[in-house]
Design a protein that fits this description.
single chain, mainly beta, 2 domains, 7-stranded mixed β-sheet, 5 helices, 31 strands, 9% helix, globular, 6-blade_b-propeller_TolB-like, Gluconolactonase, signal
Amino acid sequence: MSPATPSSRTHKSLSMAQLALLIAGAASQGLKIGPSIVEVSPDFNSVFPFNNFNRNVSVASWQTNLLNGTSAEVNEDLEFLANATFITYDESFYELLGVNSYEDIKEIETIFTFPPPPSYAQRQIHDGTVYIPETDTIFFAELYSPKPGAYMHAIPFVWQISNASTTSATASKAYPSPALTIANGAHYHNGSVYWAQEGNWSTPGGLVRMDPFTLKTEPVQNNFYGHRFNSPNDVVVSDTGRAYFTDGYYGRDNFKDSLEPELANGVYRWDLQTGNIRMVAGAADGTLFNPNGVAFNAEQTRLFVTMRGFASGDADGGRTMFAYDITENGLANRQVFAYVDSGFPDGIKTDKDGRVYGAVTGSVDVFDEYGTLLGRIKVDKDDVAVNMVWVGDHLYIVGRNKVYRVQLNTKER
């Protein structure tokens, strides 16, 4: 058991004198700088105050390249954004943070740092964040993105954070039995954890139920009338016992660990009581290519689905959050809820007040119920937020490199 050693992070890289001097210049450029929060004005957001710039789709906004003809002075604005812990675009974001303005101090804790991946892998992916209130434990999966010429290995463990609601949270490995096969998304329902597992050449992907006390597992859904799923990614289960899960081409296209797909990728609805399964959204209607995360709103009347597209670095990639109304027949009234500017929206969560949280490169982006970007909760430099989970009024953020925790003025339901 490795003790988590929480540390708080604010904008402490500058002395107060340096900060005061730079604030005056930044304010004229449309930024308001506090100890940990940067507020971006509408003018700054609408007209980037740089002569010449460009940005790769796989990096965050504060990593925008300033090209020929841009003065060094305005570089400071991007440095402020890069060093901030929170970025505000709408004043209602302060209510969520539980502060009055950018001048207040707000902290985010670093709970745990992951060990490096094995030699055959190039980075880690952490997903499937799920909280068990009876044991005060968070579970989440670890995957390794293989280097070129390699393939994804099945991992016998998942991570757990014990005492998650306390200041003495600890991180360790847990070993489901039988082991999961490329586990990904997860949801807690009626005393069980439901995992979406990708599967591999020898094990069909699908949904696996795990007892959170004994860690015993059993497959509960692994086919669509004899077809293997492609590589299930994420799952949620409603209070009425209907599971919605995404199925994309990640296993074959990205990780080289599954059979050739024979189904369109999309969103399935599986009724735990009747066993009925049906696709309710997918590539067949021209929208969902490589769907990823799923989340209900607090009332479970809407379903949010994230989409990556073929690759997160493609300029024309998906990078989209869709919102659907949940009906007795399936899903209806699809709309583009948000299009993100950094990487692609991976994990997605909501809160009781209608906000939607998307894990992207460099931050968790927070939207109101209409899709307006309110602000960003940043992770460390060069980290990527992958997924989140609520523990009371604390939001745990699981990145590729670290686990973070921030207290917010809301909760899940």
